[in-house]
Every structure is written in C-alpha cells, then in structure tokens.
Backbone:
C-alpha cells in the first residue's frame, strides 16, 4: 500500500507537470495510464467510482 501511494503521488506529479507544460505525447499517455492503474488500487478508488456513477446517473436523467 505504501508503494502504491508513493507511485500514485509520483505519477500524479509527473502528469501534472506534463499537462502544465503542454508537452503531451506517447510518454504522457503511459504516465496517465500508470497513474490510473495505481490510483485504482488505493483507497481513493471507491469514492472515484461513486462520483463517476453519480455523474453518469445525473447525465442520463437530464
């Protein structure tokens, strides 16, 4: 768990820097995929899934 949280922080920081510098390419796609993969294995996965489901439900009710 400690390694996963560290990797989430690292990938998140690198992805934020890539987005800020507008330097997006194949490397950024790999960073984003790694960030998503490691974020999904943390405790943040459940609230993120609930938020996404709520947004989908809200959009379908419009």
Residues:
């Amino acid at each position: 768990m400690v390694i996963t949280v560290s990797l989430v922080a690292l990938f998140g920081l690198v992805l934020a820097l890539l987005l800020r510098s507008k330097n997006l390419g194949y490397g950024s796609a790999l960073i984003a995929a790694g960030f998503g993969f490691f974020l999904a294995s943390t405790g943040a996965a459940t609230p993120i899934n609930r938020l996404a489901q709520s947004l989908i439900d809200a959009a379908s009710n419009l």
In short: The mean pLDDT is 75. Residues 2-60 form one domain. The chain has three helices and no strands.
